[in-house]
Hints:
Bound molecules: adenosine-5'-diphosphate, 5-O-phosphono-D-xylulose
Number of helices: 17
Structural class: alpha/beta
Amino acid sequence: MSAAEGPLVVGVDSSTQSTKVLVVDAATGQVVASGQAPHTVSSGVGRESDPRQWWDALCTALRQCGDAAHEAAAVSVAGQQHGLVTLDGHGEPVRPALLWNDVRSAPQARRLVEELGGPKTWAERTGSVPGASFTVTKWAWLAEHEPEAARSTAAVRLPHDYLTGLLTGLGTTDRGDASGTGWWASATEAYDEEILARVGLDPALLPRVVRPGEVAGTVRDSHELPFSKGTLVAPGTGDNAAAALGLGLRPGTPVLSLGTSGTVYAVARQRPADPSGTVAGFADARGDWLPLACTLNCTLAVDRVAALLGLDREAVEPGTGVTLLPYLDGERTPNLPGASGLLHGLRHDTTAGQLLQAAYDGAVHSLLRALDLVLDQDADRTAPLLLIGGGARGTAWQQTVRRLSGRPVQVPRAGELVALGAAAQAAGVLTGEDPAAVARRWRTADGPVLEAVERDEETLNRISGVLSDAAPLLERGTGSH
Length: 481
Ligand SMILES: Nc1ncnc2c1ncn2[C@@H]1O[C@H](COP(=O)(O)OP(=O)(O)O)[C@@H](O)[C@H]1O
Ligand SMILES: O=C(CO)[C@@H](O)[C@H](O)COP(=O)(O)O
């Protein structure tokens, strides 16, 4: 038996690039074991992953945790948002999942927005104006391009629902992740049958939305898994909503997450509805809201630029007027799904290190411009920005965010906030506590604060200028997406 003070809980982060598992002492928040296994994502025209790979990665990561997982009393799965998982009558994937960063459904998104009455109608009904990331547009793409696959689909799941379903044998989801589908009405907190009918999706194919704090099920008998029979399974949620739980986030505190996606968000008491579409009006996993903006190009795009330049990711040099919009995957914020990367201002004396800094600046610019729209009027605009995700470990990322935000930046010492949030949710179903309160008790947000420096308005304005001058080029795209 472990020397833990309380029951053990397991938190899972099944994100784009890998699955991470933490076994946590529910009393203290101490991580007693951890595991990690990678995923592969297709390259080329789309972004797809085989859901079975997520399950294999989960089993591998759990095995790395040894006996600790076996002792756990509860488990919860957080996952990358929006992905379309289509299952046949035996629960097997009909085809690989279409991921959040697959932009092929941009034409379907444009059409759906128009057909339902425009951006304002969508924002009022679902909280968001769906772009190519949203599940509803992916289903519309599938129905149009692969009607046979759509016809063979007996169940539609999000990534976290798929894994939770394999644990429990039941079809469940939660409000946080459901709010990223485009077919969940945030105004009524229920599936929107008119939207579902419009894309020809039978509501019976969708999972039940489990209430915050409700148990989703228990781990079914399986020799694949190191859990004991009867281990409780919490509702789980999308990865950003899980990180909000993992930070014990209170309304108005801004978070900037640097991972495969870049995200900015804050917990809000008011239901968001931004008709410009920049801010997605997600629900959080507790009963509040999580206005959020997301970019497709963050750590992977900047790492790709560093690799092209043959530089280490930290080998930046202060910029002198060169602008790089790192939209290698097309972009979601700003909404330019067909765009590619764009370089402006190159001179004979521009160094490789300055080009790399320009890539960081371009990635952070999109997130900070969106942050002003994410925060409501009451938010304290001088409070530290919480910086999380894999990129938060990097000095160049930290200093870029600090310089372009002009705000203090707090870097939580706890590395895996999504998995910790899932663990806090698992602890919550055991004890009846609010998961955010559990995370605050665990002091997960503690970490050094980098003091504010003067905001680099010149760089922000230069990037905004290039972005608006290059709009026709960026909107036209390269034709390769
Ligand atoms: N020490 C570091 N410095 C800068 N970036 C890092 C560091 N460690 C990891 N990363 C970045 O973090 C990214 C992964 O972040 P993570 O939040 O785990 O991704 P995701 O959850 O989206 O799969 C990698 O693409 C890598 O660029
Ligand atoms: O699409 C969004 C948010 O709307 C992304 O944030 C995904 O949820 C993927 O997350 P990571 O794998 O980058 O953590």
